[in-house]
Design a protein that fits this description.
Blueprint lengths: L15 H9 L5 E8 L5 E7 L5 E5 L7 H16 L16 E3 L2 E7 L11 H18 L12 H14 L5 H25 L5 E3 L8 E4 L2 E4 L6 E3 L3 H4 L6 H15 L13 H18 L5 H5 L6 H25 L1
Antiparallel strand pairs: 1-2, 2-3, 3-5, 4-5, 6-9, 7-8
């Protein structure tokens, strides 16, 4: 009998008993306490362990990454931890970090506590910059062989094509969306070209405030599930907020700390708006691609409504203006 999960309903069968039995298959004794943590792409649980500290079990989305890509994530996290950076590496049990049970792949992690960082303050951003400079110094040692490289085609063109080819746009908005998508990606490509050759290094890949914890006056990086090759600025720009002038100041503060450990190519500033464009488009396609997973319609019930797509088109128009304004300032 085939025990592999249904790719259209990937977590069918991952009930509490299966989660506990998976962890206990590694020789650990669970005390029955189980709490589902906030995660859409994977399924993540906090488990109580008899005579031990609680652990976090992460069950990887079936068919998303090949084993080799997950193991590269694990190896990168362990490499970062060996340099003294505060990350949460997978636990090595019986000589392995990636395990299987009932058709699911999973890993175990120590439970990491902390609070959201207070961004916008010079000292906090300078400290985060130091941490990211150290992270990127490690990331620049080599490149991922089995994980993606961040680029316009992989994140942008494919997202627009997927949404249009699969009928996600209301008919009356398709033409406008397609035209805006082409204009956005053309503008992003032009700005990327203006930056010139940019080094692609191993990145955290999804370094937004939700993936940072602040504890004991330092930053702790969690969830490297989206680590990939790409420009260093990808791990910096998502920490910026507010009007453009404030974001420019915040980036300067980040770079004060960053440059202590690694050089930063100033031309990478030109990639912020193209990367923001890719994230906007990729996010919409990500939800659409996961729609068969019951968790997504429950979490995003508005996704199929015309008013949502009207809002997306408005965001695209604003982003196109931002790209054009940035280009005019550069000129």
């Amino acid at each position: 009998m085939d025990s592999r999960p249904d790719p259209l309903r990937p977590y069918d069968g991952l009930d509490p008993d299966t989660v506990i039995s998976a962890v206990e298959s590694l020789g650990l004794a669970c005390d029955g306490r189980l709490l589902a943590l906030n995660s859409f792409e994977n399924r993540v649980y906090r488990l109580g362990i008899e005579d031990g500290s609680p652990l976090v079990a992460k069950f990887y989305r079936p068919a998303r990454w090949p084993d080799a890509a997950i193991l590269e994530e694990h190896a990168f996290t362990l490499e970062l931890g060996e340099t003294g950076l505060s990350v949460v590496p997978p636990l090595t049990i019986a000589g392995a970090t990636l395990h299987r049970h009932a058709g699911f792949r999973f890993a175990l992690f120590a439970l990491q506590g902390g609070r959201a960082p207070e961004l916008g303050q010079r000292e906090a951003l300078r400290h985060l910059g130091q941490c990211l400079g150290r992270l990127h110094a490690v990331g620049a040692r080599s490149r991922f062989a089995n994980r993606p490289t961040l680029d316009l085609a992989g994140e942008g063109d494919s997202a627009v094509d997927f949404l249009l080819d699969n009928g996600w746009l209301p008919a009356e908005l398709e033409e406008n969306f397609a035209a805006l998508g082409d204009a956005l990606l053309d503008a992003a490509e032009a700005r990327w070209a203006l930056a010139g050759p940019v080094a692609r290094i191993r990145l955290h890949g999804d370094c937004h405030p939700g993936n940072l914890l602040w504890r004991d006056d330092t930053a702790h990086f969690v969830d490297l599930d989206d680590c990939r090759n790409g420009p260093a600025i990808q791990d910096l720009w998502m920490l910026l907020s507010g009007p453009p002038t404030e974001q420019a100041q915040q980036l300067d503060w980040l770079l004060e700390g960053y440059r202590i450990f690694r050089e930063f190519h100033p031309a990478e500033r030109l990639l912020i708006e193209p990367l923001r464009t890719l994230r906007l488009l990729h996010y919409q396609a990500w939800i659409a691609r996961r729609w068969a997973d019951p968790a997504f319609p429950a979490a995003f019930p508005w996704f199929g409504e015309p008013r949502h797509w009207e809002g997306v088109i408005a965001q695209m128009q604003e982003q196109l203006s931002a790209l054009q304004e940035a280009a005019s300032l550069q000129a």
